[in-house]
Automatic annotation (TrEMBL):
InterPro entries: ENT1/ENT2, Eqnu_transpt, MFS_trans_sf. This is Solute carrier family 29 member 2. The keyword Membrane applies. Gene3D superfamilies: MFS general substrate transporter like domains. Residues 235-257 are annotated as: Disordered. The chain crosses the membrane at residues 12-33, 65-85, 92-112, 124-147, 154-175, 187-208, 295-316, 398-422, 434-456. It is found in: Basolateral cell membrane. Belongs to the SLC29A/ENT transporter (TC 2.A.57) family. The keyword Transmembrane applies. One of its GO terms (molecular function) is uridine transmembrane transporter activity. The lineage of its organism: Eukaryota, Metazoa, Chordata, Craniata, Vertebrata. Its main location: membrane.
């Protein structure tokens, strides 16, 4: 067992930067996949000549199937990961998931340049979506458990990286519109970018165990550091020679008060020694249900946040129309819906590195989370078109922009607090289990929100 003279420092914030990149890498591939929707629809829903007339081809409803086949594997794999992750080594889960995601995006990039019959292309694309999200769920759940073993600010950095992934995708969308490139070229650029991003993420993960600061917190055998003076060590040696009865009674000399400790190693310096001892209780991890009982409030919070967020974004917000026509019109939704939401969500996550309120024991966090339900009617009463039932109460672009800013900021802030608080409510040995469970409830919230969005859109 390795002995530490003192807690190592994160030199140059290298571990923090790595976890920021890991957070970015978990969501960067999927966000870029979503922004290529125009390419997929143009390739699948083409028109063809029939007897001299243009006839519509088969309708694939790509966006609907993409949403369904992205949420189902996320929910399923996060559930399985919560229960079975202990049986699969961490390196296999993390590095293996990133390698498969990389290979699937390489395949998708290659298919951009390969002509293929529409039905076959649709099938291959849907299978790719299913497996990318399956591996992504395992990757995200495992990384949440990993970062949960470090101080809270690293969880904040990790989630801040996740929030920035959506901003990258929104900027890519704007660049595509401004450059007026063809869908095929845009799609090729989209898919090469996450390939590079996933490769960088894999390299960062492989570098992590080589850093002393990461070793200190992620060492599975690490537990406590006991400082003693050289005088105590000498006394311990004397007692060992003169009072063997202590050991006969089951207590090692000078550590009689530490009944729950098992023997570690010592390292002496001119004035003191540091002993790394492993608590007996750390050898057996708690069951999934025992961990859930400690974090269920935070699990509810993250589920409710994503249920509300996905219920209206983007299903309803994407149909809001601007009052100002002309050159601004094609940029309105990319800027005021997608870019604003992702920037606001990222800022909300980042703020938690400076402010953590309410504290993790407070009952105000669930109240704050539930209060976000007010955004549902507010956004539904904006200028959403087409509409059949509700009136338009907020017609101006500025009002919609304010609603979206507050909506996205509160989403990122509440999610980051809930996800970073959960591992702190359990023992260090159970932090990875808590992270895996929280990722499952995150996926549950996404699925519930996506299902609720169909009903809310019909009510508008």
């Amino acid at each position: 067992m390795k002995v530490w003279a003192e807690t190592p420092r994160d030199r140059g914030w290298l571990v923090g930067i790595i976890f920021f990149i890991l957070g970015l890498g978990t969501l960067l591939p999927w966000n870029f996949f979503m922004t290529a929707s125009m390419y997929f629809n143009s390739r699948l829903n083409k028109a063809e000549l029939s007897n001299g007339t243009v006839a519509a081809r088969k309708e694939y409803y790509f966006d609907n199937w993409m949403t369904l086949l992205s949420q189902l594997p996320v929910l399923l794999c996060t559930l399985l990961n919560s229960f079975f992750y202990q049986r699969i080594p961490e390196m296999v889960r993390l590095a293996g998931s990133m390698i498969f995601i990389f290979l699937l995006f390489v395949l998708t990039a290659i298919l951009v340049k390969i002509p293929m019959e529409e039905d076959r292309f649709f099938t291959v694309t849907m299978v790719t979506i299913w497996f990318i999200n399956s591996f992504g769920a395992v990757l995200q759940g495992s990384l949440f458990g990993l970062v949960g073993q470090l101080p809270q600010k690293y969880s904040t950095l990790f989630m801040s990286g996740q929030g920035l992934a959506g901003t990258f995708a929104a900027i890519a969308m704007l660049i595509s519109i401004a450059s007026d490139t063809d869908p095929e070229t845009a799609a090729l650029g989209y898919f090469i970018t996450p390939c590079v991003g996933t490769l960088v993420t894999l390299i960062c993960y492989l570098l992590l165990p080589r850093l002393e600061f990461a070793q200190f917190y992620l060492d599975k055998n690490r537990s406590y550091e006991v400082e003693t003076t050289d005088v105590l060590l000498k006394e311990s040696s004397t007692v060992d020679n003169e009072k063997p009865n202590d050991q006969a009674n089951g207590h090692p000399p000078h550590l009689a008060a530490s009944d729950e400790m098992v023997e570690g190693t010592t390292e002496t310096t001119p004035n003191q020694a540091f002993v790394r001892l492993e608590p007996a209780g750390d050898r057996d991890k708690s069951s999934v249900m025992e961990v859930f009982k400690k974090i269920w409030v935070k699990a509810f919070c993250v589920t409710f946040v994503f249920t509300i967020t996905l219920a209206v974004f983007p299903a309803i917000t994407v149909d809001v129309k601007t009052k100002f026509l002309g050159k601004w019109e094609p940029y309105f939704i990319p800027v005021c819906c997608f870019l604003l939401f992702n920037v606001g969500d990222w800022m909300g996550r980042t703020v938690t590195s400076l402010v953590q309120w309410p504290p993790k024991e407070s009952r105000l966090l669930p109240v704050l989370v539930v209060s976000r339900v007010v955004f549902v009617p507010l956004l539904m009463l904006c200028n959403v078109q087409k509409r059949s039932h509700l009136p338009v109460l907020f017609n101006h672009d500025a009002i919609f922009t304010i609603f979206m800013a507050l909506f996205s900021l509160s989403s990122g802030y509440c999610v980051c607090l809930s996800m970073s608080y959960a591992p702190q409510l359990v023992a260090p040995k159970d932090a990875e289990t808590a992270g895996a469970l929280m990722t499952f409830f995150l996926a549950l919230g996404l699925s519930l929100g996506a299902a609720l969005s169909f009903l809310l859109r019909l009510l508008v």
